[in-house]
Every structure is written in structure tokens, then in C-alpha cells.
Design goal:
heterodimer; A: 200 residues; mainly alpha; 2 domains; B: 229 residues; alpha/beta; Rossmann fold; six-stranded mixed beta sheet; AAA+_ATPase (chain B); nucleotide-binding (chain B); P-loop_NTPase (chain B)
Chain lengths: 200, 229
């Protein structure tokens, strides 16, 4: 579920209530993990493919969602191949891919404000002490700020390259963490400046 | 011209101390003018002073009043705040959703939210940005949307903390024209002395104290003289 998610449209999936989409996602994930392995995967895969077709989303969106995770899928495949053989390795990778694509389908067809409304509806039965608005906003913020963190990472990488430092995970991650924490402070202030304390 | 009755901002004996360090010494201040500028060196305490007006910063002593009300929620409703970096102010990935954020917090009905967004986008000629991803906007567009996100809540006062620092000359001029045309009271922290010269009153903050307070020409002249030393 990546930040640059929503694709405008008028399909039935776009118009469906976010709560139903989230519940559908939960049901699909549960089925993939507790259902009979290959039949559940086939059914889940077919449902996701039908969802993309129904939402009139070309396959390029699916490819874009999976591309950044290719190395994780490759690693998962290699580990499963070593531990359990071809069949289980293929199953694990396909199941993971179907999960990602199902979540992507929800993101592509749901504006983040509707997504927040859906999470709030999902949390409605929770007791009063559960900070519903905060949980919903936290999920929305994650979607909003993924591209920003990606830009920060690129700026730090370029600044380090300009001073002769090639790729170095620690040298990248420390300033990234510090900048992200500083931004988090400012963002928190900005959220409260816009009366968020009246939302819960 | 002065701020509307009941919306006048005042600080009574307000100080800010953090980690044992005094950021702002106790001060009393009433801001009745429609255009108030705040200037000072980096680290002088001017941003902390500005943040007090919207309740983002909590005073260590004293009270911040809007009219005769000291409630923090009322302060946030009545005083909007625009940050230096719009990237840290825009919360939602799509412009329209971000503009709705504060209004939803105030639990306004959807039709009023839509009407207010339409009004603010038309007012600033930003209607074309309504459905755009916020992270794809230019710096100038982001700052306009950050300001629109505050104005849509219809505050009596707008506080801006160096809003043009990250903008190019064209976007700076556009933003400043827009700010000059606002009906709301404006309190602006800025290093843009040319802009502040047209304000009604300017405060000079030095080492956590109001070192000068008065008409722009006198206060700015003192600030320039200090910088020349």
C-alpha cells in the first residue's frame, strides 16, 4: 500500500464504501492463511484479478506495486526453496504477492480521507478509551509521508555522494532517522494547530 | 484598523522555559493591529513567541488570551498557523483532502466543508490543484495550499512563521500579495523587511525579550543598526 496510491475513477470498486473494502481485505487475508492452501490462493488471486478488472486498472499498477518488493519476494523464494522445496517456495511468494496486490487494490481505489473514514467505521465498536481518530490519522500519515521519506533519502544520498561517500547504509540511515524525527515533531505541531484535539 | 473585538490576542506574564533555559522572558503584550510583524536574529525566540498565539507552544508561566478566553481549543480555532515548511504542514496526499482536514476536526457537515473548500480555492485561484497529489506540487503551490488549509477554517488571526523562506522570488511575491489582501489579522515572523515595512506594527525580539515595539520604520531601523555592528 504505497503513498502514491489513489487513482481517480468511477468504477463500482471506487464507489464502494471503504469499510466494505477493508473488511473484504481482512476476509481475503484470513482466507489465504487459514483456507486450503492452493485452492484458497487460486480463489484469492482470481478475486484480486477481478478487482483490478472491475476497477478498470491496467496491469501496470500491479507491476508498480510489486517492483519495489521484488528483492523481498526473491529472498522469500530462496529461503523457502532451501527450507521446503519448489512447491512451498512458489506458494509463499504467490501468496505474498496476492496479499500485496489486494492491499494495493484498496489503496488505488480509495482516497486516503475515505480510508480514514473506513478505519474509523471499523473501529467504531471499540471502547471509548481507544484513540480511534489517532489510529486512523496515523495510518493516513504513513501513506502521505512515504514519498516524503523517499525524497529525504534521495537528498541525503546525493549530499553524501557530492562529498565523496558512496552507498553506506549506516551513513544514510542515521541522518534520515534524525530528519524524520524532526519532521515528525513539526508535523505533530501542525496537526494540533489545525484543531486535531477536537477530533477524538 | 484594529482586530475585531473579542478576537484580540494578548499575552499576560507569559514566559517559556525549556530544559532550564529561558527562551522567552516574562512579557505582556496586546496585539490589536491588523498587521503585526516579528523580527529578530536566529534563535532569538521569535518563532516560540509566534507559536504561543495558536497554542502550539505552552507557556511556562502566564496566560495567552483570545478576547477574554484562555482556552487552548478556542485559541486554535481562532488563530491559524502557517509553518515555514509546508511539507510538514500538509497532512493528506490529495489537496482537497488536506483542506478538509481541519474542517473535519471541527466536525462541520460535509456540505459546509465542500462549500468552504470551493470558496478558498476560488479565492486564491487554486481550483486547478483540487485533485492533485500534494507531494507533486511545487514549493510555492504547497505553501499556498498550507495557507488555504488554515484560511478554510476561518480564523480571526493568521500567524505565519517565515512563510516565504523556501520560495523563489515569483512565489514569494505571489504569497506576499495574497497575504497583503487578507481580511484576517496577520502576525508574521519574517526576515522580509520590505514586506514588514508596510505593516502596522513590528516587534523586535532579542534574546527572548521584546527589544523594540512600534511603527515599522523605527523598529526596522533599530534592527538594521544592530545588524551593522
Amino acid at each position: 500500500m504505497l503513498g502514491e496510491g489513489y487513482v481517480a475513477g468511477t468504477s463500482p470498486l471506487h464507489r464502494a464504501r471503504p469499510l466494505w473494502k477493508l473488511l473484504g481485505l481482512i476476509v481475503l487475508c484470513t482466507m489465504l492463511f487459514v483456507g486450503p492452501a492452493w485452492p484458497a490462493l487460486a480463489l484469492g488471486g482470481a478475486a484480486v484479478a477481478a478487482g483490478f478488472a472491475l476497477a478498470r486498472l491496467p496491469p501496470i499498477h500491479a507491476a508498480r506495486a510489486l517492483r519495489p518488493l521484488a528483492w523481498i519476494l526473491a529472498l522469500l523464494f530462496a529461503v523457502q526453496l532451501w527450507l521446503s522445496g519448489w512447491a512451498l517456495a512458489a506458494f509463499a511468494v504467490l501468496r505474498f504477492a496476492v496479499l500485496i496486490l489486494a492491499a494495493t487494490l484498496v489503496t488505488l481505489t480509495t482516497r486516503s480521507s475515505e480510508f480514514v473514514d473506513g478505519i474509523l467505521a471499523l473501529l467504531a465498536p471499540a471502547p471509548a478509551w481507544v484513540p480511534k481518530a489517532r489510529i486512523a490519522l496515523a495510518i493516513s500519515l504513513a501513506l502521505r509521508f512515504l514519498p516524503m521519506v523517499r525524497d529525504m533519502l534521495e537528498q541525503i544520498r546525493q549530499a553524501q555522494a557530492a562529498r565523496g561517500l558512496e552507498r553506506n547504509l549506516i551513513a544514510l540511515s542515521v541522518p534520515l532517522l534524525l530528519r524524520a524525527l524532526k519532521s515528525a515533531d513539526d508535523i505533530s505541531a501542525a496537526i494540533y494547530a489545525r484543531s486535531f484535539d477536537e477530533a477524538d | 484598523m484594529t482586530a475585531a473585538p473579542g478576537t484580540m490576542l494578548a499575552l499576560q506574564g507569559v514566559s517559556v522555559v525549556k530544559d532550564g533555559r529561558t527562551i522567552l522572558h516574562p512579557l505582556d503584550l496586546t496585539l490589536a493591529e491588523r498587521r503585526v510583524g516579528i523580527i529578530g536574529r536566529n534563535g532569538s525566540g521569535k518563532s516560540t513567541l509566534a507559536r504561543l498565539f495558536n497554542g502550539i507552544e505552552t507557556p511556562s508561566t502566564g496566560t495567552v488570551l483570545l478576547g477574554d478566553c484562555a482556552d487552548r481549543r478556542a485559541l486554535r480555532r481562532g488563530v491559524g498557523f502557517v509553518f515555514q515548511n509546508p511539507d510538514n504542514q500538509i497532512v493528506y496526499p490529495i489537496v482537497e483532502e488536506d483542506l478538509a482536514f481541519g474542517l473535519k476536526n471541527l466536525k462541520l457537515p460535509p456540505e459546509e466543508i465542500r462549500a468552504r473548500i470551493d470558496t478558498v480555492l476560488d479565492r486564491f485561484g487554486l481550483a486547478g490543484l483540487r485533485g492533485r497529489f500534494t507531494h507533486q506540487l511545487s514549493g510555492g503551490e504547497k505553501q499556498m495550499i498550507a495557507l488555504a488549509g488554515v484560511l478554510v477554517m476561518r480564523p480571526a488571526t493568521v500567524v505565519l512563521d517565515e512563510p516565504a523562506t523556501l520560495l523563489d522570488l515569483w512565489n514569494r511575491n505571489r504569497l506576499m500579495q495574497l497575504i497583503a489582501g487578507l481580511e484576517e489579522q496577520v502576525i508574521m515572523v519574517s526576515h522580509d523587511l520590505e514586506m514588514l515595512a508596510r505593516f502596522d506594527r513590528v516587534l523586535l525580539v532579542e534574546a527572548g525579550r521584546i527589544a523594540a515595539d512600534g511603527p515599522p520604520d523605527q523598529v526596522i531601523a533599530r534592527y538594521r543598526a544592530g545588524a551593522a555592528c
